[in-house]
């Protein structure tokens, strides 16, 4: 029975840790929230007091945290992972954070003769629950191979992206493009409807033309163009506007650091910042930008 | 032997008219440019002096012109189509123009007991040459059926989009989305490369993820990611930046008239206006926006 | 007693015509709305049935209409101005419309040996009421001199801008810049407040620094930074978001026609289109963009 | 004779330190570049080996560094300021950096019973040379009073902005607005010229209307509209595009951290990123955006 440490039992992490338990791993877990701790304990995990206790107990560590401040704290605080980590430990960080933050942590791990890979995910809460996540992995090839045995229990795709930080880079670039496309599809569909087109007809032509994309042919933001997607259910569930705003913010940080101009990416970020601060839109699927643009009194 | 009138023998129109000749139609043609006239004459067309002469000779008219001023002139000038048009004539306008301009012309035709459909195309010069264009048709269903026998000789898809003006609407909406996506892909690929990713790897992951789209998986603007596309040949050929600027401008006119907000569409328009006024970029394929964004000293 | 024709007695026009009456002009007026007609009649104007009747009665014509369709109709309809206009008539068009529309009308007037100047205004309803408008005049210099005697009764500045259409050009350019600045000030003030600054302190430093502008030092959109402006009164009165959206739309039409890139102008247009379609913002002063950006739950 | 420590003798810092020498201060200085050290030594400064040596020698410290990495290094490295700083020392940081970085450093100073104020400047190299800089100061009021005696020798305005970090906030907000206005003026002037207006006439009207701002009435980016500004000298000197890109990047970092939407600010940032990566524009005054927008072949 293999032991895995799991730090961060939030909306995503609790499902991921549970999928490891289902696959007969022994899970030693930590979260700041006692309620989250209790839930996973009742499902069979061992709960410890500090991140340092997790690192003391196993050489396989997974972290799933909301931002780089949390990741830094979990690794570098006085009761953090780096206090007790053993040589040969593999740290798998599934948090979505700045590329530079991933690279910084990996260096601190290296000083302890431990390995670090960044492995951010796509697939959302549903993917976490059903173990259908995609992991985008950056790090040494052998660490990627070693991580696979854990990641495959929580997801269906584990994609190798190159050295440390490349998992973050791939996720940030894909999601920036996704945000741009979702707004673009919403603008084009709304304009078409206002010009007198039937939205299903417009979508069907776009989907076989040069405008086709995932946001149009698989996840269309116009209600009732495609069945079973959030737009048909008043944008409940799915990938929230706040999360899209977060990922687009990471893209902007990268754009500034790399001096890579991203005019549409930055405007997409601003639009999702507006949605993310609005009570009607912030907790809705990111396709709700269609509703924001099309709504008139 | 069916007779067709063809007005506008430019970059697109001369190939389209030639494809009608190849399919044993009798073509009566007009263009402002004597050189264009002479070329088509040597291929078998009959050349007349004025648009009115074309309309006097046949009830099947095709127009392929660069903008709505030209279309208006060809129809309403003193030697224009409307001077001599017979009841029962079908006017097929393949120009890409404002939806409102199409609707206005259709009403003038109706007053003469003639029909009008708008049938703008996609597929570019290559599509015109190889008779592989897509026609997006707006007009009465029976006019669409009647037009098909001509359009099928010049293209491979003839898509019915609803009433008059809907062909323009579909083309404008699709191309606005296309312009947004091409810039978005260029931004994401450039950012990824600057963050240390291999462009082929990044494209391959995007193309199986939520960021996938035609501009990424079929027409990638990064040189050598996909073989045989303009980006591999310094952006020669393809769909020019100036044409994209034109189509995005039509989308902005529609956005203003319909009061449909298009933030990304308007920014895409401005970026292609910048490219279209720059000697290094104006005559290049619209994927050249990647070069514009990635170029550093 | 000099006679003036006045066509268009709306929100602005009724005050302007009244100021002419107050200055002892004889006013012959027309409006589509009988209520507006009745109001001005009770103030001393003579009301006629058609624009053609106004033009038949006087060689001094003022038009104040909401858009170029209305202007075109008033001039070219069968009962329009051009039916009865006499040689030597001066048409003063104070409508804010496309530059190209002004130029087109001026040519039709010229064919009748009449003159045309465009003279759009700034100053809003308050300026119309108090005769403190600014007129931006495009046309022949002697027509400008002739127009002055009328315009000075309705405003306090009559600025000569050059040939026909230049009045529109100046107004469109100034108002595009104004829209950009108002959003810019709103963004900067909101960001500053979120960073912990007192808005009055921030404004006072900006107003003596390189960021100073009219939207900051005279019309600040943050409530209670400057007394007596619309932001202190929940953005009531002032210059409405819908009017700003209209002017920014005219700037976009000009940008497309002239191939002059206006990235910030087009984004400003889109933002005011969003505000202009929102019930909470559409009828408010354009400074309400601060409220839109700063509002969080 | 008062002693002052000065760390960072770059384009700005060398002039600032020299102005202290001119005012009979004893200056103990450090820079990474031996050439810069030698220059200031020949002007009378004492040069030391490490930042720690500066802090060991005086309780009055000024830092003028290009970014927060440098500031962090100068304070926290093993030979950094914090190694040797005495209680009662006042650190005046004139670097333009993230507000959060200023606040973090101030806390480290506080742990050593030392004070920290952020005092970023505006006025550029010319202002540094002529001692006409403006300092925007954030920190305790008594620290501000103490700092004044030094700052007044290097600038003509020392503005108190509130607590630590507020100097950065004011500078970032003002300069974001400035960047927006400069692009806005450039767009409006270029559009006006393309619409047929004389640029001097247009500027003169804007400057007495609601579009007036510093970028139009004092620093107009159109050549020969105002005498003696960089636009008249092919944009040589002045405030460089790269520096504007840096400040707009800091504004974007703040916008993301504070969740304050800045649509125009982010687009302005992207535009200056494009200019800052272009060999023709990167070293020019930021008014060169006019040239970028107006240039056609």
UniProtKB/TrEMBL annotation, chains A, B, C, D:
UniProt keyword list: Branched-chain amino acid catabolism, NAD, Oxidoreductase
GO MF annotation terms: 3-hydroxyisobutyrate dehydrogenase activity; NAD binding; NADP binding
Name the UniProt record assigns to this protein: 3-hydroxyisobutyrate dehydrogenase
Family listed: Belongs to the HIBADH-related family. 3-hydroxyisobutyrate dehydrogenase subfamily.
GO biological process, one term: L-valine catabolic process
Catalytic reaction list: 3-hydroxy-2-methylpropanoate + NAD(+) = 2-methyl-3-oxopropanoate + NADH + H(+)
Lineage of the species this protein comes from: Eukaryota, Metazoa, Ecdysozoa, Nematoda, Chromadorea
InterPro entries found in the cross-reference section: 3-OH-isobutyrate_DH-rel_CS, 6-PGluconate_DH-like_C_sf, 6PGD_dom2, 6PGDH_NADP-bd, HIBADH, HIBADH-like_NADP-bd, HIBADH-related, NAD(P)-bd_dom_sf
Source organism, top-level taxon: Eukaryota
Cellular component GO terms, alphabetical: mitochondrion
Domain 3-hydroxyisobutyrate dehydrogenase-like NAD-binding, residue spans: 165-291
PROSITE patterns named among the record's database cross-references: 3_HYDROXYISOBUT_DH (PS00895)
Record domain 6-phosphogluconate dehydrogenase NADP-binding: where: 3-162
EC main group: oxidoreductase
Pathway in which the depicted protein is active: Amino-acid degradation; L-valine degradation
Active site: 171
Pfam families on file: NAD_binding_11, NAD_binding_2
Organism: Panagrolaimus superbus
EC numbers: 1.1.1.31
């Amino acid at each position: 029975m293999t032991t895995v440490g799991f730090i961060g039992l939030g909306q995503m992490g609790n499902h991921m840790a549970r999928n490891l338990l289902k696959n007969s791993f022994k899970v030693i877990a930590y979260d700041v929230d006692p309620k989250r701790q209790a839930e996973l304990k009742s499902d069979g995990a061992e709960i410890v007091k500090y991140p340092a206790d997790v690192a003391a107990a196993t050489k396989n560590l997974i972290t799933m945290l909301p931002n780089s401040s949390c990741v830094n704290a979990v690794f570098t605080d006085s009761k953090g992972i780096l206090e007790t980590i053993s040589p040969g430990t593999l740290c798998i960080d599934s948090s979505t954070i700045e590329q530079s933050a991933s690279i910084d942590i990996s260096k601190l791990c290296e000083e302890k003769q431990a390995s670090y890979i960044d492995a951010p995910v796509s697939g959302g809460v549903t993917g976490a629950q059903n173990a259908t996540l995609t992991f985008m992995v950056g790090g040494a090839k052998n660490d990627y191979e070693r991580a696979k045995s854990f990641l495959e229990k929580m997801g269906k795709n584990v994609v190798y992206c190159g050295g440390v930080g490349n998992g973050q880079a791939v996720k940030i670039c894909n999601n920036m493009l996704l945000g741009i496309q979702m707004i673009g599809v919403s603008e084009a569909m709304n304009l078409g409807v206002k010009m007198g087109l039937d939205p299903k007809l417009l979508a069907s032509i776009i989907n076989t033309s040069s405008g086709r994309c995932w946001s149009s042919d698989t996840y269309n933001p116009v209600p009732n163009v495609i069945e079973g997607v959030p737009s048909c259910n008043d944008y409940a569930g799915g990938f929230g506007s706040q999360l899209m705003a977060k990922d687009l913010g990471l893209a902007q940080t990268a754009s500034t650091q790399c001096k890579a101009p991203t005019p549409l990416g930055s405007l997409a970020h601003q639009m999702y910042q507006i949605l993310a601060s609005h009570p009607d839109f912030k907790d809705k699927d990111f396709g709700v930008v269609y509703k924001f643009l099309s709504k008139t009194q």
